[in-house]
Write a structure and sequence with these properties.
heterodimer, A: mainly alpha, ABC transporter involved in vitamin B12 uptake, BtuC, 2 strands, 73% helix, 1% strand, B: mainly alpha, two-stranded antiparallel ribbon, 18 helices
């Protein structure tokens, strides 16, 4: 039973990280119908920025709470800036191009960013400091749930709640929903569509960066290539839930996280990634609209 | 006709302001990753301020140059509109397409490749063999991506199928290269159809992701199913291709392989060219341009999609057999997503659907990093940038395909 709960918590932790990344995929897809292949790189850049900023601040001897807040802020700000720039350079010029063009451009951007970090920082794995302290009250449950699990769950719940509020109750959120529904109509009612699209990229990238920061301090090491696998898995989660749907992305992420945790725990850990890929292939074939998505009807 | 005197474009204040903003923005953007370098164990920080200046200066310069070029082009367009009878520059490709120019050109290229091993060292020959293998791979992927418009990101899976076919057949049954080549090709086609069936209904971008997943699954299975594939340690001591049982020294054998690869590349070019102008080829173009219209014309979409996957996969698998024979050692690490991305880059750079373009792009992308050692480090960075830039600046590729057109009688 203890093993079951351990797997359960590990699944939930994974799920909430996937959710943070999947939200970015789903928001971008909802608005411009593009699979942002470089989104996993935002997560990686967030983790690297967090590593650099937290190390520098630690060396200069700031107190722990200040380091935590500043690191999270820096990761979100810079990843957001990268998201903004990538959209501006690689996607905006291609908005009216054939479907394959932005996708190829996105793949190129992903490769470019990976190698940029490789060259600017290091090709090796680097240790990531454990930013989250051990909580004393968790000691009796040490084997089942760690303090970083708890922090990850709490932070992602908080971030997701904030995002929901942003989208449901603010002017910007309303503009985002309008743009997602119909870009031309949104333009006609006076929404600055370009700015809303940029903003979506910034928000999505910042969420991914928070995810990167949390998971890096949980696992304890990062390198330039972590974005690829995390990106694919989060994309799987987004598709599983129904791409374009925000609650769907969260649901899909938890389903994927739990599936992975239990499958590796009870079946075999060698094929951890194969489970995710197989799940992706199966959903796309049998239920491409996902759990919560609506099947799109193509009109000629 | 003498061209009108060009006014040299002068940067306006707005251009300079934009360039400065771009420079400053990129200095901010790249600040943590490019400037700060932390050494976690020694607990020290290196500040690389020089990088920041480079990034700022380069970006400002690039933005300024782009704006000037754009302004100049707009001015040119304006002039052309005012004087519509001015001759338009002839497209460069047509220049080479007349037989009197094409034949000597082809002869010169053919001669160069023929005498290549006599002029250069074994090392160079080896590099050229690799580049030629990428010609085959690029042309194979060109069938799927360029002709049929199906973005396949897991192309390397078929390459792996071919390589492992030969590796395993040789390991368990002692089969030679010439037996493995057709078997590998057939297995590749089979896998192509196997992948093709489930993804038939998927739209472009979903198709890309599923093929990517498929490619990764194949690699992960090869890595983890040790009893079948010997896992990450791979298969070693695969025989080089034989020639009627003649004993060959290593050097001769490498030269022999070079000619073999050339023959393979020529065969690929021939077949792909014939395919392009065939009934299937035209059906692929129709599918790529508009799949609904294609269906309405009575083309069996299922059949031609599967043919595209199968034929593309066949070339990848045969190139895989060649690869296994050339390196005599294979392991799953040779078949990562990056490999698929490199092949895609070849197709995109050359021009989707263009045969000459893909051949040229494969040679450029494979040979340049070998000879410009300084660039080799930045190889993948450049590949990524090439994919983005080509899509924005020249989506038709370096040497765009020339569609056969039928002009009415005069």
């Amino acid at each position: 039973m203890e093993y079951f709960f351990e797997l359960l918590f590990s699944g939930l932790t994974r799920g909430s990280i996937y959710a943070l990344i999947a939200l970015g995929y789903t928001m971008v897809y909802g608005i411009i119908g593009l699979i942002n292949f470089a989104h996993g790189e935002m997560y990686m850049i967030g983790a690297f920025t967090a590593l650099i900023v937290s190390s520098v601040l630690t060396i200069y001897g700031l107190p722990l709470p200040a380091i935590l807040v500043l690191t999270a802020l820096a990761a979100a700000v810079w990843a957001g800036a990268y998201g903004f720039t990538v959209e501006r350079l690689a996607y905006r010029p291609l908005r009216n191009a054939p479907r394959l063009a932005p996708l190829i451009s996105a793949i190129g951007m992903s490769i470019f960013l990976q190698n940029y970090v490789l060259l600017a920082q290091t090709p090796d794995f680097v240790p990531f400091p454990a930013l989250i302290p051990e909580f004393a009250f968790l000691e009796p449950y040490g084997g089942i749930v760690g303090s970083s699990d708890l922090v990850i769950l709490a932070v992602s719940a908080l971030v997701m709640a904030a995002l929901t509020l942003l989208i449901k109750y603010t002017r910007i959120g309303k503009a985002m929903r309008a743009t997602a529904q119909d870009q031309k109509m949104a333009l006609l009612v006076g929404i600055n569509v370009d700015r809303i699209i940029s903003l979506t990229f910034v928000v999505g990238s910042a969420l991914a960066a928070i995810g990167g920061l949390l998971i890096a301090s949980h696992i304890g090491q990062i390198n330039f290539a972590i974005g690829f696998l995390a990106g694919i898995k989060a994309f799987t989660a987004a598709v599983l839930g129904g791409i374009g749907s925000i609650p769907g992305a969260v649901l899909g992420s938890f389903v994927l996280g739990l599936t992975e945790a239990f499958a590796t725990g009870y079946v075999s850990s060698d094929y951890e990634d194969v489970f995710a890929f197989s799940l992706l292939v199966l959903i796309l074939i049998f239920r491409p609209a996902g759990l919560l998505g609506k099947a799109a009807v193509e009109k000629v | 006709m003498t061209p009108a005197p060009e006014k040299t474009a002068m940067p306006t204040g707005k251009d300079i302001r934009q360039a400065l903003i771009a420079g400053l923005w990129f200095m901010f953007l790249t600040f943590p990753l490019l400037v700060i370098k932390v050494h976690p164990i020694e607990q020290t920080v290196t500040w690389r301020w020089a990088n920041m200046l480079w990034v700022g200066g380069l970006n400002a310069a690039v933005v300024l140059a782009c704006r000037l070029v754009a302004a100049r082009r707009a001015a040119g367009e304006e002039r052309r509109r005012q004087e519509p009878d001015r001759a338009v520059a002839a497209p460069s490709q047509a220049f080479f397409l007349t037989p009197s120019r094409l034949v000597p050109l082809l002869a010169a290229v053919g001669l160069f490749f023929l005498v290549f091993p006599l002029l250069f060292s074994t090392y160079q020959v080896n590099i050229m063999t690799t580049a030629l293998m990428y010609v085959v791979l690029g042309l194979g992927l060109n069938i799927v991506v360029g002709f049929a418009g199906l973005l396949d990101l897991g192309y390397v899976a078929f390459y792996a199928v071919g390589a492992y076919t030969y590796g395993l057949l040789h390991l368990h049954f002692g089969l030679g290269f010439w037996t493995a080549l057709p078997i590998g090709g057939l297995l590749g086609a089979l896998f192509g159809v196997l992948l093709g069936f489930p993804v038939l209904r998927l739209r472009g971008d979903y198709l890309a992701i599923v093929t990517l997943g498929f490619g990764e699954i194949i690699r992960l299975v090869l890595e983890n199913w040790g009893d079948f594939s010997q896992g990450p340690s791979g298969i070693a001591n695969i025989a080089r291709p034989g020639l009627f049982g003649i004993e060959m020294s290593l050097e001769t054998s490498l030269v022999y392989q070079y000619y073999l690869t050339i023959a393979m590349a020529l065969l690929t070019i021939f077949v792909v060219n014939r395919l392009r102008n065939s009934r299937i080829g035209r059906a692929w173009f129709a599918l790529r341009e508009d799949d609904i219209a294609c269906q309405a014309m009575g083309i069996n979409k299922t059949a031609i999609k599967l043919t595209a996957f199968a034929l593309g996969a066949t070339w990848a698998a045969m190139a895989g057999v060649l690869f296994a024979a050339k390196t005599t050692f294979i392991n799953p690490a040779s078949f990562t997503f990056l490999e698929s991305a490199i092949i895609l880059c070849i197709v995109v750079l050359g021009g989707m659907g263009s045969i000459v373009g893909v051949v040229a792009a494969a040679l450029i992308l494979m040979l340049l990093p070998e000879y410009l050692r300084a660039v080799a480090e930045y190889r993948m960075l450049v590949f990524g940038a090439v994919l983005v830039l080509m899509m924005i600046v020249r989506p038709q590729g370096l040497i765009p395909r020339v569609r056969r057109t039928y002009t009415g009688s005069h």
